User: Fold this.
Amino acid sequence: MAETPSTMIPLGTKAPDFRLLDTVTGKHLSLQQLKSDKATVVMFICNHCPYVKLIQDHLTKVAKSYQAKGVSFIAISANDIVSHPGDSPEKMKQEALAHHYTFPYLYDETQEIAKAYHAACTPDFYVFDKNLACVYRGRFDEATPGNGKTVTGKELTQALDNVIAGKTVSADQKASVGCNIKWRKNG
Assistant:
């Protein structure tokens, strides 16, 4: 595991479209099918990352709460399953069911979507407005394994509250820090 910060794409960047396998339903889903007319959260996560594990329970609560307000949440795993078989689609489905994910958990087999989003770590969060323009990218909150901070989801939820209220999201955003995405050796 290499501690890696998120790339922090420019605010206003248009969300790259995708069509990926939903590991729970077995269907291929696109951004156009999953987006919300209020806000869409795209997050890169995986099964084994201790940074994801730390926030996982709170993340599912935040997602459920904001889905009730019309926000769409989409989780994507792009890790190489040759080097990390615990992140395989079968294991992703088990993880989603065990943790009661209320959002699709998509598998980016080619890693092209992670590259299109400039995703660098897990977890890596992006919030897009109704026009799919990026208004937030960065961390869930300040908690990381071992730093003793309480998991709150405060930074992500503040951004979502502003979007829902039609207010500007502060450009003072902190990079997420987590495990690096496990890129394929030949990709």
About this structure: The chain has one domain: 3-180.
